[in-house]
Amino acid sequence: MTDQKTVYIALGSNKGDKFKNLQNAIDAVFAHIGNIVSIAKVYQSKALGFDGDDFLNTCIAVKTTLKPKKVLSNLLQIEKKLGRTPKEGEGYESRIIDLDIIFFEDEIIEDKNLIIPHPEAHKRRFVLEPLQLIAGNIIHPMLQQSVDDLLSICEDNSRLEPIKIWLKNPNKQFSFSKHNYIAIEGNIGAGKTSLATQISDDFNAKLVLERFADNPFLPKFYKEPQRYAFTLEMSFLADRYQQITDDLGQLDLFKDFIVSDYDVFKSLIFSKITLQPDEFKLYRKLFYLMYKDIAKPDLYIYLYQNTKRLQENIKKRGRKYESEIEDDYLDKINAGYLDFLKSQTEFNVKIIDVSDKDFVKNRADYLWLLDQICNDEA
Fold this sequence. Notes:
five-stranded parallel β-sheet
């Protein structure tokens, strides 16, 4: 997936059910912009610069792959959907919801419609107090002072009253608490690495990625499969054994679970396709000798994509040695996986068809996929 950046957003409301307005806005930001990393306490404050009801204010930190202008566009759409109407006159006025970008990492943007950092944020206590709770050490990229320091010298003497009700983080609807080790599998180009990486980022998991790119026999195999098949599969066997033994044996007290973009049993699936029958018998014997004591995932996710979509994805990532992979080879891999999974009684398996989904670029598809994974009925 595309690298994520952290955007800090200030939220305010002084019309209608103000707390509900804030929660609805956070839910919409999660759905359309990115994962909510943290939510500050909610504060009540007097309307500043005009006569109106008291405001409820907070700040959130969001991980997003979107560019700043796209984040702004989405925030404006969220405001509109939640009922905010265009201003009728000059100056400030009451509003159902107000969403402002305060920081976007250390970026400085001065555009006609977008200024980052927010030009007034360092002057407003109702922004700085909640922001300090989640980003006290963040440095203002223009003023070169931390949020802690900016709050200590802020000349705004407004009094803020903390509210004893906490807003909910919408990512809590997706729970991985039942699992210690999740393996995500799929055909070449199915998106397993992208999904494992995103889940790791969003849900504090230790990420284990297959080191296939380091295998010197892989490009040779795609050119001369019969000649290099056994050498390739044996090298994968040794490398996967070493990696999974190391990664599963090293506890990480700061992570909640492990997510991997492969499972060791893929060695049997691929080798059955690529090796001659007598070679496969020898290979299978060696496999079970090596892997009999290796921990199995307590959730095995298979991402199914049809061959047409797989070829499209393979072309997009542009690996030269994959450019000549034939449809027949991908068909055999899909069939091999599905036959293998049907025969497994020890695995907790979820086969999810993502042929019509783009969970890398489309956040709605990504959230749909999370629901399929976390929902026991899926």
